Each structure stands twice: as structure tokens, then as C-alpha cells.
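I am writing to request your help with a piece of structural work I have in hand. Thank you for your consideration; the sequence and its C-alpha cells are set out here:
=====
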Amino acid sequence: MWQLALRTLRYRKAGFIATFIAVFLGSGLVIACAGLMETGIRVAVPPQRLAAAPVVVSGQQAYLVPKEDPNDTKDMKTVALAERQWLDPAMADELASIDGVERVVAETIVAATVVRDGRPVQAGAQSLGHAWESAQLGPFSLVEGDEPTGNRDVVLDAATASLAGVGVGDQVDVVTRGETDSFRVTGVVSPAERDPQSLLFFADSAIGDLGQHGDQVSAFGLFLRPGVDAEAFQESLEDRFAGQPYLALIGDDRGLAEHPEAVGGRAQLIPLAAVFGGMAVFIAMFVVSSTLGLSIQQRLKEIASLRALGATPRQVRRMIVGEAFFVAIGAAVLGCLPGIVIGPLMFEIISEAGVISPVVEYHQGFLAYLIGPAVALLSALLAARITSSRAAKVNPVEAMAEASVQRKWVTFPRVLFAVFFFLIGIGLFIVTGAFMAGPVASATAGPAVMAWAIGLALISPGLTKVIGRVFAAPVRAAGGVVGYLANNNVRLRSVRMAAAVTPIMLAVGIALSNFYLSTTQEAAATRWFAEDLRADAVVSSSTGGLAPDVVEQVRSVPGVEAATRYVTSAGWIDKPYDGSHVSSPWPMQGVDGGSAAQITGITPVQGDLADLTGATAGLPVAQATDMGVGVGDKVTLRLGDREPAEVTVVALYEAKEGYETIMVSAGLLAEHTTTGLAQQILVKAAPGTSPEALMAAVGERMAAVPGAVVGDSSAIITFAKGTETQTWVNYLLVGLITGYTLISVANTLVMATASRKRELGVQRLIGTTPRQVMQMLALEASVVAAIGIVLGTVASVATLMPFSIVVLDRPLPSGPVWIFLAVVVGAFALTLAATLLPARKILAVPSAEAARAAD
């Protein structure tokens, strides 16, 4: 049977093109996803500023949260911190006393930005100031000039100096602590080769006064004595740090001390790669199964002949699986080629969208190139084994009779599995609507759309016939006699047409559910996180933050009713124990109490937001009740930099489940952010002042503040921004998956049309014109596309409806209608093109020759 399988491939090459392409692209996508997962697991960030130090000590940029029992120190969840954790400078003496350490150099950073003509000058994504002592950690050497010694001396990197148009001896304006001061450029250092950024080095004696955290250390670089092994030293240091929130880093991990934000990307990248890879495997199996099923339907007479000649069902199965193996093995291996390109491309898209820091180095090792082909090959063989079951068991006489037009499709296993997957879909519908809350409700969406799609695919021949009858009247009205022929073909060839309907349904269902899932989640996050922020104008900073006195300048502008500093971060409630935010921290918003009532629009159930000053906080009433906390009680917050803060509860308010936020005084929250400054000021217009007039007046006053940008309420930084980023990533990734599916759809339709060469030849011999044939095929293709769109829409609605009810309190998802229209138009266009283009090639063959073609 293996030899027969090879011979079959030689004479039926066109029938296996779709299988080849599906496995080929599936292998490439799985390789890419394996690379993304490897990258997320390793999170390698080659060091730049700390490259000379063999060992780097930094704070642990993650917090261990008790899962259920606050006293259980073993059952803990590791969650990334929202802000940089700072280290005590006194720790340098302890590290220097360790055997094997030659010297310790502290890395101190502050937000510092060069400005020219009132505008920030940056050579890269960020601009940071450092003590000159830390230049040796790079190492950064002077290319001209001298080191800074005075409190108003600065050394710039060459790229920043060039952009600012300054050289050694010139004066340059630098923003630190949100204020502008003039510094003398004493020297220029070589620019960073990787991770471009603006580097400013200040005198060691001055750095403590230039930033909110200038007296704290971000990391320590340890230089070891000759002969000391860095890896062995790291292990001993980790034992020394056991139970303390410190890390000893070597190799590429040292870059994590420079870019602690890279740690948080791991939690998003790994599940994203897993879900995307699983979706690729599922679609590959689905498409291979569909194309092989169509191929087998077209060969029932051939298979019946083999059975009549004595071939056993097992031998037929081996032949079909053998055909799939020979096609899939080559396709799976060749899939390494697109995997080389797709992986880095996907990572670039994801990193640019903000899911993971772009400084993380992409890794796609040999393991990915083993996993991808293996998974793709196994998926194809499993699909072939499932598809071959009916063909192997068919009665030879029945197969000979139904080879031209297959009508029987109902089998007990097919019905059983259809019921099984529909029950899964119904169960996920109920679970989402009854037990899920907030963004986590999306966790059931992926499995739900797959369950509905599989269930519909299993009964698609019957659904194709039923829905085809619904479309029969408009088809007949549009095509007359040609429409009559198209309707007959749809009715009689429903089983074969279902093979074309299924991938269309899959593509439409996945596209609609994922696109509208993203837009709905974005709308919900924006609504519940930002709808209570009633700012008519927003002042933002592009230089690291706004000085505390800027808010007073804004309040003095005519037409301003209220203005507040606005700070965002994330953290936890330590005491009393709160188990509601184990996997992810609480979103925290900081505002000034005096303006909170006008800006937030929150009406407390108890207490008053005007008391939100100093060490105070406001809590959602549901969580406060669960913890037994009321107004006037003390709670301990664990803020974004890991520091604890005991605060007094001054207000309780209602919040949408799953989108709760802790309100904290802006001053307290800002102290525990990386920059130590407020990033925005929210402004409310006085009665009679339009938002446009307010923005103009505030903009005029802020013209003297370097880096200050005035915008409308859409500029407000909220936790919805992260959801918006995920939305665009979803668009791109789902677009890639949908494109993959559509390529397979096209191949399936091309194969289905090409197999009708004899039928179309006979039609032309009995008087049907080529134009009528094309019209008939166009109507058939339109019906196929319409059925696929209907079924795909049903699958997506069954997925989106419970999710939308949970997050938006309404059954209809949020999102532009053009997404649906684009999917519909794309499905019709592809179906028509994949049907009519091969049909034109068939019609170019003389009708008599086409009528003699083999089935």
C-alpha cells in the first residue's frame, strides 16, 4: 500500500497541493510560536550600560503573592512589579565585603532630558541621567573633554550632543525633577551600540539632588578578583540572598537590571505564543482533514475498485495515511523556511506594540525547528487517520454508485462528536456568562469558537443542504435557468460543497470572534477605567514627569474649575489578606483629593474623596466588604516598587466587577513610581468654558514648561491603553492566522472546481455556453460563501454574546461594522476567485476532450 500511495501522488498531484500548503504554513507558524515561547521563557536582554560588570545585583522585579493562605509561603504566585525596585546605597559595603569581590560600583539613574528650544532631545526610546562613577560599568569612555566635577557639569553621549547641537564647553538645558536647569558640557562619550538612548552623566556629588530617587541605587555592578568564576560566584550569592528580594545576574540576564520592564512581558508573551500556536495546529488539522476529505470523496470510485479487488479496510487506511505522510513530511521540513522569517516578524510586531520590551533578544533555537515539523506532521497524520475511516469501511457497491454524487454523510460517530462539541460550546457559553468577570472572561472565548466551529463542521453537509434551500429562491431569481442548475448542484452535491463551506466558516468564525473580542475588551476597559475621569484637557509630559508646582500653575489659568495630578501604577493589598488579585496586581490611580470629586465623578457610597491626601486610599465597596474594611480603617498596600504603605480608607465606591481600581493620593503614588513624578495633569473646565477654549488657555500657560503637551481627554493614560495594545496585536496575529486559513480555502476551492472538468465538458456538449457555465459556477460559489459566512457568524455570535454581556452589560459586542463587512467581502471575493479562475482554464479545453476526462 505504500507503493500504491506513492503512485497515487504521481497521478493526483493537484489534489494534494492544499494539504502540502496547509502543512507547510502550519509548520512555519508552529516554529514561530515555539520561538516566541522560548523568547518569553529566556527573556534575554544583553547588557549595555552594565556590560563591563561580570555580576550585577538588582532588585527582584517580581512579587510573590499568596494564592490562598497568606501564611503559606510555598504556594505563591510570581507577578511582575509595575515600577522599578530601588536598592539601599548602604548595601554596597555588604557586597564589597564578600570574598572574591574586587570592587562594587553603584548604578544610579534619574529621569533627565536635554531640551533644545523648549523641546526634548532624545537619541532613543528613553533619556536617563547617571552618576559619572557608573560610566565604568559600560564601559563608556570619553572621546573628548573631561569628566564632570561640578554640580552643573554634564557629559553627553555623542548622538545626544549632535542632536542638541552642542559640544564641549557649551551650555545645555536639561530637565530633571520636571524643572529646567542649565549645565556645562564637559565631555562626550561614545554612543551606545545597542539599545540606543540618551545618556547623561553628572558629577557623583550632584546626582542625589537631580531626581526623585537620586539617593537610591538601581543596581550594583560587581567586579571580581582574577580567577573567580562568575557562575560559581552567582550561585553563592543567590544562596546568600535566599528569602530576600535581590537577584544576582550574569550573562544576558544582566540587561534585566537595566530594563526591569522586560520582566513583565514574559507573562504576556508565553500564553500568547501558546494560544497562537494551538490555533495554528488546530487550523492545520482542520484544513488538512477538509482537503483530504474532499480528495477522498472525489476518489470513491477508485477506492471502491480497490475494495472490490480485495483490499481490506486497513490497507485502504494505510494507503490514505501513506499519501498524507509523503506529502506532509516534505511540507513539514520545508516549513522551516517560512519559520525563519515568520518568527522574527511576529516578535517585531509584538514588541513594537508594547507587549514585550524591544530590548529583549529574540531566540528561536534548534528545538523550535524540531517541534514545528513534528507537530505539523503529527497533525496531518491524525487528520488523515480520521478522514480515512469512512472511506476504508464503505461498501464497494455503494461506493461505485455514489462516486459521482455522494449523498450519505450521517454516521453515528459524526453525530456523537457533533453533540459533544456543541455541549462544550453551550457549557462555555454558560460558564462565561455566569461565572466569569472582567477581562478574564476572554479566556473561554478561544476554546468556545473552536468548539462551535467543530460542531458545525461535523454537520455541515446537512446545514449546507438546508441553508442552500433558503438561498434557492434568490439564486433562481438572479440566474433563471442558470440559477436552476446552480440550485440543483448545491442540493445534489451538498456533501462535497460542505468541504468548501467548512474552511470558509472556520476563517469567518475565527476572524469575527477574535476581532470583535478585542474591540469589545478595549471598549470595556476604556469604559470602566476611564469613563469616570471627566477631564476636558490633559497636560502630559515627554520629559519624564511634571514638577509638583505645575498643577498650581494650571489651576490659576482662567476657565479652570479643577486640576489634579494624575498617576497610574499597580500593586496589591497586603493586609488584611486579599485574594482577588493574585494573578495580576490591582490597578491604582492617584489624584489630588481637593479636585477628585470634580475630576473623577465617582460618588462614594461612604466617605469622601476630598480626604484623599497623604497616606489615604479609596476602595471598591465589594472588596472592602469581603475584607471587613470600612471608612477609617487601616490597610497595608504593597505598591508598584514593592514598598509597603499603610493607608487609611477614606472612601468606598461602586465599581464594575473585573475592572476595579484603587484610588490613592497622587503624592503617595508618585513617590513609588519609577520617575517619582506625575506624568499627567487632568483639567476640568469651569461652567461656560468650552473644552477648546480651555485647551488653548492651558496650552498658552504650559508653553514655558519644557516637554509639556496639552491634549483632550483621549490622551488620558489608563489601563485601557494596555488593552488597546493587545487589540492591535490581536488584529495582526489573527490576520496572519486568517490569511493562512484563506490560502487553504483557496486551494480547497481550486481543487473542487478542477475535479469537475468532465461535468463541465458534458454540460457544454449539450448546449450550455461557456458564459452560462461561468454564471452557474459564480452562483454556486456565492451560495457556498454565503453558507460559510452564516455558519461562521453563528459560531462567532455564540462566542461573543456571553463575553459582551459580562463586560459591557449588553449582548451585542462593541466594534465597527466595517470589520464584519470586510470579512464578508473578503470571503465572497476569495470564493469567487478560487472558483472562477480554474474554471476559465477548464473552459479553454475543447468540450469533447473535457467530457472524456477521468473523474
Notes: The CA atoms of residues 620 and 654 lie 6 Å apart. The radius of gyration is 33 Å. The longest helix spans residues 770-808.
